[in-house]
Specification:
The chain contains twelve helices and seven strands. By secondary structure, the protein is α+β, with helices and mostly antiparallel strands. The chain has a four-stranded antiparallel beta sheet. A hairpin with a 2-residue loop joins strand 1 and strand 2 (70-78). Helix 1 crosses helix 3, helix 3 (34-43) runs parallel beside helix 9 (207-222) and helix 8 runs antiparallel to helix 11. It starts with 5 loop residues before the first helix and ends with a helix.
Length: 307
């Protein structure tokens, strides 16, 4: 059996919002498996939901570039937020996001030439590290394209045009009015930034996520004492609410607070003058999935003074 450490209990508390004793019990029940402990707490009604993403701890910037039927996102990390306000760093992220329109993956991007035709991206980044004196990393990129239509973009918490804390791309396929299509795409991208969908359609929800949610909902339903055939119907009904939470086309549109995103797209097609299909989206938030060690500043000062 895995050791149930104070650090593990603390992490579970942060991820689930449950009390300390409940977290200790949950970890003991599942032999220290953090994700299984979150599910255990949810089944007992002690945690509202698992937090899929870890604490956002890495600094730096997300950059976005869009050009007609294609768009790209990049994330460049730094150690502190001070670097994100550095003009040289901002210029690098802007240039690299535009270069990302021309390559297939992050490794190809690192080996691409900077716009001035001199250094490779990786060499320029190494130079910035030496100049600014802080470690940096071109962590990832993503791209979308359509054969006809637009790939719209949006940056949230912008530090400058095209760079900020959250970047979104939305791909709309249509032969209709490009300007109106771009305006629709920008609004849907703003929705994605706020609502953070996990999948485009219900069919695109991963089987693992769906099985996990179904298991939790079934345990919650069994607590009511209902027979299995009723529980099955209850689970399917609650899954519809789950889809409305995580599937973009099923989400309530944050712009008007009334329509589903799929209804917004259908209605917009009449004004745009041709059918519109939302074929994809990408949402990139700075530092998501990266854990950064949390330090006690007061303790550091005391240690430095020899106390």
């Amino acid at each position: 059996m895995a050791e149930i450490t104070a650090a593990l209990v603390k992490e579970l508390r942060e991820k689930s919002g449950a009390g300390m004793m409940d977290c200790k019990k949950a970890l003991a029940e599942v032999a220290g498996d953090l994700e299984a402990a979150i599910d255990w707490l949810r089944k007992k009604g002690l945690a509202a939901a698992a937090k899929k993403a870890g604490r956002v701890a890495a600094e730096g910037l997300v950059g976005v570039a869009s050009e007609g039927t294609k768009g790209a996102l990049v994330e460049v990390n730094s150690e502190t937020d001070f670097v994100a306000r550095n003009e040289s760093f901002q210029g690098f992220v802007t240039a690299v996001s535009k270069l990302a329109l021309t390559v297939s993956d992050v490794e190809a991007l690192k080996n691409a030439k900077m716009p001035d035709g001199g250094q490779m991206v990786s060499e320029k980044l190494t130079q910035l590290v030496a100049t600014i004196g802080e470690n940096m990393n071109l962590r990832r990129m993503a791209a979308l394209s359509v054969p006809h239509g637009v790939v719209a973009s949006y940056i949230h918490n912008a530090a400058a045009p095209g760079i900020g804390k959250i970047g979104v791309l939305v791909a709309l396929e249509s032969t209709g009015d490009t300007a109106k299509l771009a305006a629709l795409g920008k609004q849907i991208a703003m929705h994605v930034a706020a609502a953070n969908p996990q999948a485009l359609t219900t069919d695109a929800v991963s089987a693992a996520d769906l099985d996990r949610e179904r298991s939790v909902l079934a345990e919650q339903a069994r607590a009511s004492g209902k027979p299995e055939e009723i529980i099955a119907k209850m689970v399917e009904g609650r899954l519809r609410k789950y889809y409305e939470d995580v599937v973009l086309l099923e989400q309530l549109y944050v712009i008007d607070g009334e329509s589903r995103v799929k209804q917004v797209v259908e209605k917009a097609a009449m004004e745009i003058g041709a059918p519109v299909k939302l074929t994809g989206f990408v949402r990139m938030a700075l530092g998501e999935g990266i854990e950064k060690e949390q330090t006690d500043f007061a303790a550091e000062v005391a240690a430095a003074r020899g106390n």
